[in-house]
Design goal:
The protein is of the alpha+beta class. The longest helix has 18 residues.
Length: 357
């Protein structure tokens, strides 16, 4: 349902921005546990979709690394550059060149450039873009065939577009994120990190709350790097090879649902299971070995806790399947330890070991 809805939205989006200099939305990509197949709870599921934004005609996006960050994600700024469109005008397109036509002519015949609408200085602003994106979704809804049979209610969100869709007694919650792709890779910079990346691999409720507060105070020109699309591709890659295609997903559901409340976030379990899928031969992920795999996962987590180190799965991982395209810098960046806080805080480490026990 979410996939069909997003296809309908995309068709309307493209039509509504075609005569403007606003970003051009591309086909949405489903990310997170709901699209990976291991949603912890059917009742609480939120369908996260990432809408890539392309620069409008006469503009280009350049990503500038801001910092390595402390939230299991690097941060970037998106510099918006005006580019020459004279050749496009010569080919018959009705488009003045923002670099080579007079300001008076541009004002009279052409709509404001992206720099004048959604940017702060020369950088694309998340909050301004979020407000524009929200209005785009809202104005597009009535043009969708789904609007005749479904009821849509928007929910508060400052860096995404979140809504609840109802049809009779059935309903679902969708959160639309937007972002910019890094080259032709599976890595994006986004308005807001998808579910599992929120709070990194924290193991305590207080730590997750602190990180949520930090995210709320991120400046408008700062975009967060996300690996959610690469992770979806990884799970698709694994599903094509394991003998029992859902066994690893059942393992994740055991730890994220049955063991909820023991202190470990879903992103911790997800990271551990992804590492195990590249450590234990895929031929051994059979139904009859389910208990053995659960014990392997617990043993791997115990080792990570003892050495106070759990490495990020995508960053600096040279063992990623070749079909998952990442920028060269991602493979060579300094490995990120998601348990760094345990090495720095003995009390947090003791708490983690108690939670494990």
């Amino acid at each position: 349902v979410t996939t069909e809805l997003m296809e309908s939205f995309t068709r309307v989006f493209v039509d509504r921005v075609c005569d403007s200099f606003y970003p051009v939305p591309q086909g949405a990509i489903g990310v997170g546990s709901a699209f990976e197949g291991w949603t912890p709870s059917e009742r609480d599921v939120v369908y996260h979709v990432l809408v890539p934004l392309n620069p409008p005609p006469g503009h280009a996006f350049h990503l500038e690394l801001n910092s390595a960050g402390q939230m299991a994600a690097r941060t970037f700024c998106i510099c918006v550059e005006l580019v020459c469109t004279c050749k496009r005008e010569q080919l018959g397109e009705k488009l003045l060149c923002v670099l080579h036509h007079s300001e008076a002519e541009l004002r009279q015949k052409q709509k404001p450039s992206l720099l004048e609408t959604l940017c702060t200085g020369s950088y694309l602003d998340v909050k301004k873009t979020s407000r524009w994106f929200y209005q785009l979704v809202r104005s597009s809804w009535l043009h969708l065939p789904e609007s005749h049979s479904c009821h849509l209610v928007f929910q508060p969100s400052s860096r995404s577009c979140r809504f609840r869709l109802s049809k009779g007694k059935k309903n679902l919650t969708v959160e639309m994120l937007f972002g910019v792709r890094q080259g032709d890779s599976e890595i994006f910079v986004v308005s807001q990190p998808p579910e599992a990346q929120k709070g990194g691999s924290s193991i305590s409720v207080s730590s997750q709350s602190t990180k949520a507060d930090l995210q709320a105070n991120i400046p408008g020109t700062v975009w967060l790097e996300t690996y959610a699309v690469a992770e979806v591709k990884f799970f698709q890659h694994i599903a094509r090879q394991v003998p029992c295609e859902r066994l690893h997903l059942k393992c994740l559901q055991v730890f994220t649902c049955i063991l909820r409340g023991t202190g470990f976030s879903s992103s911790t379990w997800k990271t551990v299971v992804m590492h195990m899928l590249t450590t234990v031969p895929l031929s051994r992920w059979r139904r009859r070995e389910f208990t053995r795999r659960l014990l392997d996962i617990m043993e791997y987590l115990r080792h990570c806790l003892q050495v106070k180190r759990l490495e990020h799965f995508v960053l600096s991982n040279k063992g990623l399947p070749a079909e998952i395209s990442v920028p060269p810098a991602i493979r060579t960046v300094e490995p990120l330890n998601l348990f760094e806080h345990l090495a720095q805080d003995p009390a947090a480490h003791r708490e983690a070991m108690r939670a494990y026990s």
